[in-house]
């Protein structure tokens, strides 16, 4: 590494390694004065030459030491800056497992303070006393980890190891290198440095991508087959008119289903990429919900479901994106109709909360209900409960995930309450005060 060296010697003359020279120079001057006063000329000349020679030699030696120390200090500062600001966690320890380095990223990752660890012994026994040290202990001693995959041959450095943990789920890769090595192998190392990379998000994204492709191909196969069948059947020259109309209706229904699936996946992609833009405007929620409910009546009638709207007497104004909240309402109403029982009912209600800054919108049904253990998973991407899969195998499992994201971006919350075999109620809140909308979305207020 190339390092700048000051051309002005004055910077080196002030450094600590030059102190010995300055002390020697002061003593030499005093001795020289005494010699000039009390000794013969010959001794004066010899002593003066020796003192000057010694002073020059000491000066050059001290200057060299100062330059080396200057280089080392710069390298140390550079190394400290790199390690401190590195995006990966860095932990270094000596051969006795005394912690030497614990950077800022390590503090965040392990949720531990460097001041409490640096300089302390971190053995299996000592760390077992503190439950907060569990993750760090399993990374320093990877044989304790629940899932380990070694990617390097034993005894060869760097040692690369992949580790997986539960509660919470983590996937990390550790790279271990000896700090000082006098020969080959761990026995010659005075310590080790570990670089810990958190791969949890990358692994989740890859898993999500694979799930996306699998679910998309599975969900689109059925409606595509139906459209293809309809197109083939209507080409038959001897097909009666009434049969042709029925086939066309089947193909149209499959095409609408396919369009709905494609829109869901496009919305999902926009949400994950942060491109799901919002256009907020102030409007009457009472009238808006009435329009969405009316649009759902034909589907409810086709399925033998009674769809009701408990409309408030007075208007309720709120600031929201009509298109996005329309997606949420339509999805919840469609689900309530789809997973209901014959002659069941769906009730949509709207009320102001007591604090007057929020409104609650609820969609209740008399359907099959959801298992208690599945309720908390409903808003997870691609999740579908057993009871819904039995009634409809073509769902994508992303409608509620999209709904949750839309509600959150409006500053609200969404949740579900269900009794198996008796029905489910989905409720979400919206703020009536625009200041409660997240600031990153408020910037789109009033834009078209």
UniProtKB/TrEMBL annotation:
Gene3D superfamilies: 1.10.287.130, Histidine kinase-like ATPase, C-terminal domain (3.30.565.10), PAS domain (3.30.450.20). PROSITE patterns: HIS_KIN, PAS. Keywords: Kinase, Membrane, Phosphoprotein, Transferase, Transmembrane, Transmembrane helix. It catalyses: ATP + protein L-histidine = ADP + protein N-phospho-L-histidine. Residues 75-120 form the PAS domain. Residues 215-434 form the Histidine kinase domain. The chain crosses the membrane at residues 20-39, 45-63. This is histidine kinase. The lineage of its organism: Bacteria, Candidatus Harrisoniibacteriota.
